[in-house]
Amino acid sequence: MSHTKTNDVSIGGDKDANHVSPQEAAALHARIEASFVRQGMMKHLGARLVSVAPGEVEIALPYSERVTQQQGGYHGGATGALADIAAGYAGLTMAAEGQEVTTVEYKINFLAAFQGGELRARGRVVRAGKRLIITTAEVVHLDDDGGESPCALMQQTLATVKQTY
Description:
6-stranded antiparallel β-sheet; 3 helices
């Protein structure tokens, strides 16, 4: 069997299911970005969209007084919101055009507390159905020297809903 190199992008476990052309990858990124910029909370917290691929989204949250609790560390609510949004957008990459997703439930484990640096939430689809999408998100802390440490782990259930905007 010969292998031919193409310009297609493949992300995730099932390469055939997630194989997209560069044009499709750009359209998917534009779809997620158009929704992300409508997120008032993420805008307020200073989050930014890092990457988008079929079934995967990464979002960054820099350290600031907007995201801290009383002891100066990242607030669990900000960390949970970041995980929820990253996994939710990973799910949206698998939803049909004209559909959005909404969180039905999530469970998060906080593994360690951090100050400074930046949090990165990496959302990933575990299983996508027509009505329910199961996702997970790993939140890591990036320190000022580039070191990465586990911060939180989340599992989420999303429901698809009609887009209303």
